[in-house]
Each structure stands twice: as C-alpha cells, then as structure tokens.
Amino acid sequence: MLTVDFTRFPIAAGDRVLDLGCGGGRHAFECYRRGARVVALDRNGDEIREVAKWFAAMKEAGEAPAGASAVAMEGDALHLPFPDASFDVVIISEVMEHIPDDKGVLAEMVRVLRPGGRIAVTVPRYGPEKVCWALSDAYHEVEGGHIRIYKAEELLGRMREAGLKPYGTHHAHGLHAPYWWIKCAVGVDNDGALPVKLYHKLLVWDIVKKPLATRLAEQALNPLIGKSFVAYATKPHLPHLPDDLTDGTGPTADAAA
C-alpha cells in the first residue's frame, strides 16, 4: 500500500533514493523495482533486517532491473550517516509525526538531498487524525506514538523554512480513515472485534485485488477523509553568482581582505 503517488513523483532508473524511516519498506521496494539505487533507513533493527531479507528475495526473483541496488541499514534520522548532497530523492512517509525535533529531521533531509533533488513527505491528515485522538487516548499516548497533528499549511511552512520549494499535494487512503476510527472506538488493540475484522478483510481484498469499485470509492473519498496528507517539494539550486563575486575581485573579496 503506497502513500506516495509515483505518477506525481516519478523515480528514474539510477536515481539515488533514501527512504527515511522506511518501516516495512513499502516505498523502498517500489523504488527498487523502478531501477533506483535505494537506501532504506530506520531505527528499528528488526524491521531493517526484514527489509534486507525482502531486498534479497526481490533480487533473487529478478524483480529489480539491472543496475538497481538496495541496502537496508539502521540509523538516526537526526544524524544521517551520509555526506551532503548524497541523494537525488528522499522519501519520509508517516514518520515526522513521531519525532519531537521535526525541524532537525527536515534539516538533515535537505542536507543530504542534492540541489535540484526532490522530496516526498507524508503525515496523517489533520481532520481524520483529530477524530482518532478524540476517540482514543491509547491511539497516540504510547511510546513512539504520534506526538503532533499537522495542519497542511503548517507542514508546508516548515518545509519552506527548511529551504524546500513545495510543488504539489494530495490526500491518500480514504478507505483507511473509517477503519482507524472503528479501531479507536472499540479499542486500538482489540483486533478481534467483529467490525475491525470485517473492515480489515475489506482493506486486504482491496489491496490485493484492486477492484474498480473500491478504487473509484477511494478516489472520491480521498479529498474528503483521506487518512494521509502528501506533499512534494524540490531543493532549489543555489543561485548563480555573478563572475565579479567569484573571481576574487568583487565585494566578497574586499570584505574578506
């Protein structure tokens, strides 16, 4: 189940992609299938080991084209172990709502993204997330849980402050918001409740079969109750300095003298 729309955020063969806070690896796997050179990074060692197994299985099955590569590694989003401008693309999906220093994470992503590179950020959408918080304290008051709810303009503002230039947004997973409302209403850990079990079967069926009826229903629901807000941005190129500022004769040189 992808949150990033790769028709709006295309990945080219050979792109250097960082999936930051990759979790189970869903976006990393898709980028690998598209021929990218992928690094999937997460602080959860168990998930990283599982992602590495799937990368190996995909390679064995020939699911990735020649030239593609994939590495899974543990790491800290606030201290990325990469040089500046290491990646063409950075994806961070459903992660920033967990991290106290979200500005620090944005700064690190911008640092490792090359000028002209692109970034995709997804977070829970304000309205559906507020309903979950209202229905259940257990939904968010857990270790490592959600610590904030973003309004769209708030997230876009933080991206701009970090030096990014947003160019597109949309909502995703309209069918999933009611599922989480039901879970919050009956108890987030009560997966045996009949409404939860029935709705989960519907979602699994939709993901596996992709029937036209649910695809159309989700398209209609996304603008209204889409569970995720998705924002795309670029890192602008540095402005070109006039020759007299770079040849040692201009004001910059005078100031340094």
From TrEMBL:
Question: Which residues does the UniProt record annotate as the domain Methyltransferase type?
Answer: 18-120
One Gene Ontology biological process? methylation
Q: Name one Pfam family in it.
A: Methyltransf_11
Q: Name the species this protein comes from.
A: Actinacidiphila rubida
Q: List GO molecular-function terms, semicolon-separated.
A: S-adenosylmethionine-dependent methyltransferase activity
UniProt keywords, alphabetically: Methyltransferase, Transferase
Q: What is this protein called?
A: Methyltransferase domain-containing protein
TM segments?
none
